[in-house]
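Predict the 3D structure for this chain.
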Amino acid sequence: MRVCIIVEGCYPYVTGGVSSWVHGLIQSFPKVEFVLQTIISAREQSGKFVYKLPENVTEVHELYLQDVDWDRNRKGWHKYELNRQECAALRSLVLNRQVDWDTLFELFQNKRVSLDKLLMGEDFLKIVREYYDLHYSQLVFSDFLWTMRSVYLPLLFTLKMKLPKADLYHCVATGYAGVLGSMGKSLYGGRLLISEHGIYTREREEELLRAEWIKGAYKNVWIDQFRKMSTLAYERADLVTSLYEHARELQIELGCPVEKTMVTPNGVSVDHLQNLPGKTKEDEGKFNIGAILRVTPIKDVKTMIQAFSFAKEREPRLKLWIMGPCDEEKEYANECFEQVEALELEDVVFTGRIDIKDYLGRMDVTILTSISEGQPLTILESYAARVPVIATDVGNCFGLIYGESDDFGAGGILTHIMNVEEIAQAMVDMARNEPVRLQMGESGYKRVMSGYRIEHMRAKYRGIYEDFADSLDVWLECMDEG
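Done. Predicted structure below.
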């Protein structure tokens, strides 16, 4: 079976939970051929991998959502006159009225259409004007038109992408990845599997509502765009997985048919995190708090640093280790460095990229202050090493700390998002109550052993892949008989 994994903005270009999951999944099935279809922002990122690809990855295809070179020097690409069906399909997309995706797939895959000329052309102008008159006539039309062009350009890049043929298209999100997977299924007859770590539509909504680069009603235009792409993915998918029950409920709320949904929790290699090196002379007299993360805004490292400054005034033993890459959002990382200096904080260490095995055994507790998560691997990895956690109440953090259906007890302390006082108090409480902290570590260890081992995840996906392979064989037999 040939599996095309479709990823957006993660593997193999950046580290993180989703990237680690994809890498581990591919390694788990060495006899399966994997093809990578990646979605990144620009050509400048091309080929800049931070993972060594497993041998069973045979091809890598890249889509650039901000591809300024797309229409340059393409002979034969011209102003294409849409026929009535194609124009109606484009209208259905913009007006979000029972979108005729199959006609759009055919148009952009098989017709030599200049995207620049289409978006600057009369057909698109008329359709946008209709949409404007119906919903946004209070805005300045010229601004609205340019916004609509910027909204649709990355989607049209996606529809133009020449996908590799595969038996199974496995998308690690909806959004643009879901569009590609749906198109692959439509064009080549493969099956479609969606594995959501976070709920893509909700995450984009949260980002857009906080974004400063887009104002007022234009946020709704972008949100509607992501919703219609996710709707497509849910409608065309054969199976849609999520990491925990509440995420599955959100998928159903967003329109995914309940019979397509399945919960497939994350898994970590527990054996890999046993008997780790313990504390060193450097750690004498210190209470180590470890943050294993990418230094990016979504991890809210600034709140963590502020909370640490308050906690350290009460507990001078505290030391904060911020362990992970600082080069993904360099401006934000520099702001974090400056914050540490401005607060005149001692005992804050930015390690950069690390092997967690070299550090996790030295930690008394780990911390995650994210404003959005799915089911964080860092919490499961901490539990595997019997290290309790402090985490904000996002994604599945509540379930991981208190348990979904077990009575092992709390594996750490849960706080509210961006609540500096709560997070600081949690640091102090962990440092001052060793028996409770050690019991939390044991509770977390029992929890990860009971349902979050890598073996559990592999077994789930082995069953899914085998079911798809069996279904494919049946389908091929029917085709041969026909």
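The CA atoms of residues 170 and 193 lie 5 Å apart.
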